[in-house]
Amino acid sequence: MASSSFSPLSQFSSTSFTVCERPTNHKKKIQIGCTLKLTSSTGSSFSLPSCQVLHKSLPLAASVVVLLWSNPAKAGFLSGLPGLESIPGPKLPEIEFLSRFNEENQKRYAEADAKFKSSPLLKEYLEKTKLNKEKNRQETQDKYCLRGAEWGVGDCSAEAMSIEDKEKFILALKEKVGVK
């Protein structure tokens, strides 16, 4: 099936618009009147009122013009410059009582931190944390090794072993992990 690009309006050649003045209530108003004059390629012509078409298409045309002619927004002349946060604020008056209170608190906090860091309790907990971390890492590694041996994948794969050796290896891994 062949498609045709023939348009019924393609055979008409000209369109004309007229502007007329019509006095109304003693005031002059300019009214746009329009007539679509179509001339066919055979030489016959006729006119159609197209004011409705103009009134409906004018807002659309104006919107298209605004969209196509609008410039992109620019950051402005202050872009790239540091903001207000980079400017130091005014020097506030210092109250002696608050300054002394702040210094005393800072000294107390520093002493308490030093005392806590040198306490035997903290040292004991840090040592336990290191031991637990190593133990947990080894347990996790053993669990993954057991799973790899059972599935036949990874570094602990037992696929190349005989059936008896494979069962012994998996049993030894289960004992090490603590699985029954």
Give an overview in words:
The protein is of the alpha+beta class and 180 residues long. It has four helices and three strands. It has a three-stranded antiparallel sheet, covered by helices on one side. Strand 1 (16-24) and strand 2 (27-39) form a beta hairpin. Helix 3 packs antiparallel against helix 4. The protein starts with 15 loop residues before the first strand and ends with a helix.
Short description:
The chain has 180 residues and is α+β, with helices and mostly antiparallel strands. It has four helices and three strands, in the order βββαααα. Helices cover 49% and strands 15% of the residues.
Which terms would index this structure?
180 residues, alpha+beta, three-stranded antiparallel β-sheet, 4 helices, 3 strands, 15% strand, flat
What order do the helices and strands come in, and which of them pair?
Elements: E1 16-24, E2 27-39, E3 45-49, H1 51-69, H2 96-117, H3 120-151, H4 163-177
Antiparallel strand pairs: 1-2, 2-3
Helix pairs in contact: 3-4
Give helix % range: 40-55%
End-to-end CA span: 77 Å
Main sheet: strand order: 1-2-3
Biggest beta-sheet profile: 3 strands, antiparallel
Could you give the order of the helices and strands? EEEHHHH
Count of helices? Answer: 4
Mass-distribution shape? flat
Quote the beta fraction.
15-25%
What is the strand tally? 3
Question: Overall mean pLDDT score?
Answer: 75
Low-pLDDT ranges: 1-23
Secondary-structure-based class equals alpha+beta
User: What is the CA-based Rg, rounded?
Assistant: 45 Å
